[in-house]
Specification:
single chain; 748 residues; alpha+beta; seven-stranded mixed beta sheet; seven-stranded antiparallel beta sheet; 37 strands; globular
Length: 748
C-alpha cells in the first residue's frame, strides 16, 4: 500500500513557498508491519494521486486552487491528528491510489477491508454535522438526501470502514471529536442496524448470516452500480476482479463468490416476507432485496434436522423415523453453482393449488426461531424464485435435489420506461424515493416476464404533501396508477414508510390496475397505437392534483409523464382512466398535446409534423384560439401575454422556441426538374405543396415552455395552440409526379 508521510506533508504545507519540488510525501508500506492511521470520509472536491505528488510543480494559481479544496484540507487535518496520536503514516483513498492504473485500483479495492482492519486508528469525518454529537433521531428535513441520517451512514463504501477498524473515531465538520465507535455503539446500532457486539468486537464476535450482513447494505448507495457489490467483498472475505461496466452483474458475481466459501443458505432468503416480489433468478439483484433480513440467523446442520423434525411432528405429516431417515440420507449441508443451475438439496412441500410451485425450507430462522422458507416454481429442468402461492398440501417435506436458476432469462426483453417529471417541480414537488429498488437517472426498468412493480414517490417538503406513481407488470400486462391516499403526514414514521405502504396497496390491487390501464380492445382509428392514457388524483388539503400520462408500452411508447396541476378539489381520489390521442412520432412537446389531423406533413429535424395551409390568415407561433371546420380564429398569443404575468418576454420566448431543418417527400421532389431550394410536403392525395427555402419554427420541449403554459392554463383552457409554423418565400401546388397544378399561380 502507498502511505502518506505525515511529517513530510505537514512540513511541505508549512513551508509551501520554500519546499523542494521533489519532496516525497508518498511512500510504499506494508499494512502488516507498519503502524498507520487511516481516513474515512464522504467524497467531495478531492485531491488525486497526481495532484498530491506534483503539487509543488504546479503554477501558483493552480496550486492555490488545489490547497483550497475541502479534500486537501481533510488530508492536512488528518495528518495533524495522526501526528498528535503518534503515527508517522496515513492512508487516504483519494490520493494514495493511482486510479489511472487499473491493476493498482483493483488490488486496492480487494485489499481495502484488510487495510482498514489493520490500521491502528481510523478517523471518520462527518462533513454535514456541526454539533459535537451524532443525531439520535432520523431527521428527514435536515438530511433529506441521505434518508434522514448524516450522509456518511448511507454510502456503500463506508460500511466496511465502520465495521473493519478496531479503533474508529468520529469528527464533525469542524474536526471536533464526537466519540469512538465503542462508546457510540448504541446510537450507531440504531442508525445502521449493526449489532453493538459487532461494532465493539468485529465480525468474529458472533456467527452472522449472509442475509444479515447484506441487510446492513440494503439502504446504502454508491455512485457506480458495480460498487454496491465491490464495497462488500471484504465483509464476506472474498475477492474478484473489477469489471466496471458490468452493472448489476457485479452483485451476481459477488453472491457466486460467497457461495464458494460458505454453505449459508440465507443467501437465498432475500425478501422473506414478499414485500418486493421478483420472480426468476434465485439470487438477489442488489443488496436492497435483503432489507428485511436483519434478524435472520444461521441454523447449523444438526440443529436444522431437529427443527424440521419438530415442524413435521407439529403438523402430523409423518413419523419421526421416516423424516430422520429421509433427511439424513441427503447432503443438505452444501450447494454448488453448476452450468445447469445451483445444485442443492432442500426439503420441499408442494402447494395444493399450484402443483409446480413448492415451499422450500432453508437452514436459517428468524428471531422467534421460525424457519425461513421461499417459494420455488418448476421451470423445465430448473426452479425459479416465486411468490404469492397460498395453501400447502398436508404432507411432510420431501428432500429433493434441485437446480436453481441463477442467471437472468436470456429470452426476456426488459421494459425500459423513461420518466419525464419536470412538470412536478413547478409546484415544488421533487422525486423523493423509489421502492423496492433505486433507478438510474430517469429510466425505470421492469421485468416483463414476472410480476414486477416499482413505486416512485414525489413530495413537497414545505406543504408536507406527496403522491406515488406505480409502474408494473402483471401476467404480461403493463399497468400504471397514481395515488395520494394519506398524503398529509405529521408523524415521521408515516412519512418514511409511505413508499412501502404505497407498494403494498398497489401490489394487492395489481390485477385490477392491469385490466384497466391499457385496454386491448381494437380501435378503428388507424393511429390507435398512439393512444395515450391519463389518470389524476387530488392531493388532500391542497389545490393540486397529481397527473400521470402514458402510452401503449406494447407499441414502443415507453414515456411516462408525471405532472402536478391546479385542482380546486372537486375530484375525490383517482379518477377513471381517460384516453387521448397524441402523435408520439412528431416533435417533442412539453407534455401530451392532442394534435389535429391535417392533410400535409413535413419532417422537422426528422420528426414528422402535420400542417395545414393558412393562406390569407396571419398566424404566428404561439397563437391560441378556436378551431372548427378547418378555420382557426385567433384569441391571443402566449408570448404576447407574458407581460401580463410579469414575465420577461424576450428571454423566455427565445428559450421556448426552436428552429428546425425542413425536409419532405423526396419521391415527388425527384420528379421535378428545377428542385434547388425546394421541399415538397407529404399528402395523402394529389395536392402536394412545393415550398421554396422553408424554415420550421416550433415550440420547444423544455422547462421554460412548460412553466409558461402552466401560467397561462386558464387562458388556454379549451383552446387550440399553434405549435409549429413553416415560413417560405413562395409555394405552389404540384401533383404526385411533381407537375404544377392548375392554380392561381405561385404564391409569394
Amino acid at each position: 500500500m502507498r502511505l502518506l508521510d505525515v511529517r513530510a506533508v505537514l512540513d511541505r504545507e508549512k513551508n509551501i513557498q520554500q519546499a523542494e519540488p521533489e519532496t516525497e510525501v508518498l511512500k510504499d508500506g506494508d499494512d502488516e508491519t507498519t503502524s498507520y492511521a487511516i481516513l474515512s470520509h464522504r467524497w467531495g472536491a478531492e485531491v488525486n494521486y497526481q495532484e498530491m505528488i506534483k503539487l509543488l510543480k504546479m503554477t501558483e494559481r493552480k496550486r492555490d486552487e488545489v490547497r483550497q479544496r475541502d479534500g486537501y484540507q481533510k488530508i492536512i487535518k488528518s495528518c495533524e491528528l495522526a501526528m498528535r496520536d503518534g503515527y508517522s503514516w496515513l492512508w487516504v483513498d483519494t490520493c494514495c491510489i493511482d486510479k489511472r492504473n487499473s491493476a493498482e485500483l483493483s488490488e486496492a479495492i480487494n485489499s481495502m477491508y484488510r487495510w482498514y482492519e489493520n490500521s491502528q486508528v481510523c478517523y471518520a469525518y462527518l462533513g454535514d454535522i456541526e454539533e459535537p454529537s451524532l443525531p439520535s433521531q432520523r431527521d428527514n428535513s435536515r438530511f433529506s438526501k441521505s434518508k434522514g441520517w448524516p450522509e456518511w451512514f448511507v454510502r456503500g463504501w463506508t460500511l466496511q470502514e465502520l465495521v473493519a477498524p478496531k479503533q474508529l473515531e468520529f469528527f464533525n465538520k469542524n474536526w471536533t471529536y464526537i466519540g469512538n465507535k465503542r462508546r457510540l455503539a448504541p446510537t450507531l446500532e440504531k442508525i445502521t442496524r449493526i449489532p453493538s457486539s459487532v461494532l465493539g468486537q468485529g465480525l468474529a464476535s458472533k456467527r452472522l448470516s449472509i442475509a444479515q450482513i447484506m441487510s446492513w447494505a440494503a439502504d446504502r448507495q454508491t455512485t457506480r452500480v458495480e460498487d454496491r457489490a465491490y464495497s462488500l467483498m471484504g465483509l464476506f472475505g472474498v475477492s474478484m476482479p473489477m469489471l466496471y461496466g458490468e452493472g448489476e452483474k457485479a452483485f451476481q458475481r459477488l453472491q457466486l463468490e460467497i457461495m464458494r466459501v460458505s454453505n449459508d443458505q440465507s443467501i437465498f432468503a432475500w425478501d422473506p416476507y414478499g414485500r418486493m416480489p421478483r420472480y426468476g433468478n434465485v439470487l438477489a439483484d442488489d443488496p436492497s432485496y435483503f432489507q428485511d433480513c436483519n434478524d435472520i440467523q444461521i441454523v447449523e446442520s444438526d440443529r436444522f434436522i431437529d427443527k424440521l423434525t419438530d415442524y413435521v411432528r407439529s403438523q402430523n405429516y409423518g413419523t419421526e423415523s421416516e423424516w430422520h431417515q429421509a433427511a439424513h440420507s441427503q447432503q443438505m449441508s452444501w450447494f454448488v453453482a453448476t452450468n445447469a443451475g445451483i445444485q442443492i438439496w432442500l426439503p420441499v412441500i408442494p402447494y395444493r393449488d399450484y402443483p409446480s410451485v413448492f415451499k422450500a425450507i432453508l437452514a436459517c430462522n428468524d428471531n422467534d426461531g421460525n424457519l425461513i422458507s421461499i417459494d420455488l416454481a418448476s421451470c423445465g429442468s430448473t426452479y425459479d424464485r416465486s411468490f404469492n402461492a397460498t395453501e400447502i398440501r398436508r404432507a411432510y417435506p420431501q428432500v429433493e435435489r434441485l437446480y436453481l436458476t441463477y442467471s437472468p432469462d436470456a429470452n426476456e426483453t426488459p421494459c425500459h420506461l423513461t420518466l419525464d417529471d419536470r412538470g412536478a417541480s413547478c409546484y415544488g414537488f421533487t422525486r423523493r424515493s423509489t421502492f423496492p429498488r433505486e433507478i438510474a437517472g430517469d429510466t425505470v426498468t421492469l421485468s416483463s416476464r414476472t410480476n414486477d412493480l416499482m413505486v416512485v414517490v414525489y413530495a413537497n417538503d414545505e406543504t408536507k404533501s406527496r403522491f406515488a406513481i406505480a409502474l408494473g407488470f402483471h401476467s404480461g400486462q403493463g399497468w400504471v396508477h397514481v395515488t395520494c391516499n394519506g398524503c398529509l403526514a405529521t408523524e415521521e414514521g408515516r412519512w418514511l414508510d409511505f413508499d412501502r405502504k404505497a407498494y403494498d396497496v398497489m401490489w394487492n390491487a395489481r390485477a385490477q390496475h392491469a385490466l384497466r390501464t391499457m385496454p386491448n380492445e381494437p380501435n378503428n382509428d388507424s393511429c390507435s397505437r398512439c393512444d395515450n392514457f391519463v389518470k389524476h388524483a387530488h392531493i388532500p388539503q391542497s389545490i393540486w392534483a397529481a397527473r400521470v400520462v402514458w402510452g401503449r408500452w406494447d407499441a414502443g411508447n415507453l414515456k411516462i409523464t408525471v405532472d402536478v396541476e391546479q385542482c380546486p378539489g372537486c375530484c375525490v381520489g383517482p379518477l377513471e382512466r381517460t384516453t387521448i390521442f397524441n402523435n408520439r412520432y412528431g416533435l417533442g412537446a412539453p407534455g401530451v398535446i392532442k394534435t389535429v389531423h391535417r392533410s400535409h406533413e413535413l419532417k422537422l429535424d426528422s420528426s414528422l409534423v402535420q400542417l395545414d395551409e393558412c393562406l390569407g390568415q396571419k398566424i404566428v407561433l404561439g397563437d391560441y384560439g378556436d378551431f372548427s371546420n378547418g378555420n382557426f380564429k385567433r384569441r391571443g398569443n402566449i408570448f404576447e401575454d407574458m407581460p401580463v404575468l410579469g414575465i420577461g418576454p424576450t428571454d423566455t420566448a427565445n428559450r421556448a422556441t426552436t428552429v428546425s431543418q425542413v425536409s419532405g417527400d423526396e419521391d415527388v421532389l425527384r420528379c421535378m426538374q428545377n428542385r434547388n431550394g425546394l421541399v415538397v410536403t407529404f399528402h395523402e392525395g394529389d395536392h402536394h405543396l412545393a415550398l421554396y427555402q422553408p424554415t420550421g419554427l416550433s415550440l420547444a420541449n423544455n422547462q421554460q415552455l412548460k412553466l409558461l403554459l402552466k401560467a397561462l392554463s386558464e387562458r388556454l383552457a379549451d383552446k387550440y395552440l399553434v405549435t409549429t409554423v413553416i415560413h417560405c418565400s413562395e409555394f405552389y401546388v404540384v401533383d404526385s409526379q411533381g407537375e404544377p397544378r392548375d392554380t392561381e399561380g405561385v404564391v409569394r
